[in-house]
Amino acid sequence: MIDPPDTLFPEEESRSPMRPQFWSLWHGCHRKSEGCLHCYVYRRDTSNGIDSNLVHKTSMFRMPVQRDQSGRYKIPSGTLMWTCFTSDFFIEEADEWREDAWAMIRERSDLDFYMVTKRSERIPDCLPEDWGTGYANITICCTMENQRRADERIPVFKDLPIAHREIICEPLLEGIDFNGELGHWCEQLTVGGESGREARVCDYDWVLDIRRQCQEAGVPFHFKQTGAHFRKDGRVYDIERRLQYSQAHRADIDTR
Length: 256
Ligand code: SF4
Description:
The strands form three sheets. Strands 1-4-5-6-7-8-10 form a seven-stranded parallel beta sheet. The protein has a three-stranded mixed beta sheet with strand order 9-11-12. A two-stranded antiparallel ribbon has the order 2-3. Strand 5, helix 3 (123-126) and strand 6 form a beta-alpha-beta unit. It is built from six helices and twelve strands. It has helices at 40-47, 95-107, 123-126, 147-157, 204-217, 244-251; strands spanning 21-23, 26-27, 56-57, 80-83, 112-117, 138-143, 164-169, 188-192, 202-203, 221-225, 229-232, 235-238. It is an alpha/beta fold. The two termini are 36 Å apart.
């Protein structure tokens, strides 16, 4: 039995969505762990007859440093650049292109770059020589979808030299015990369910328990989306894609 989504949480909250630029400088990836099973890159590529395993540079590669006819950068200063969202910035095939990417990021120190990876173990070998304690205009976000991947990735990720660092647990596949490892090294932890027809269930109790751990560690918590199948108080709700973000917002459980 499925209830309509608007019975899940009682009150609406309005938020203004961020409007970043997407910089897909290379495209394609390989499944890395359990969270990749229904990866949207594969879903979309399959419907377009594209092999997602073929990693290639895109026509957007030089996007941050492109200029208009008057010589000004096309991307205005202060823009948030969602970087590499149809691949993984630290994927092996991109090793030969990454130096050029770092050079563009250095040149555009007036932009903010946000990148998400499941390959935290590759980060140390992929950093540029002048990285130091991390470029101030880059946030690196490591994703971990279950206990196994949190146990594997947190010890590596938390000690890396990164100026701005976040965690994403999405798609959240089970409850996660961070074993007291969360702390101020992590600027935000985001949780979300899985989207798509074959999505796995996300349980509200898992979400609340991670929120509790964030509060105890002083880490800001963000509940981003419910996913397509969401369990609350033992009942599973099927949530339309267009309502998955607003339903999470209505839970009103974010902390700062
Ligand atoms: S690492 Fe990310 S982009 Fe790559 S297959 Fe997994 S979910 Fe998809």
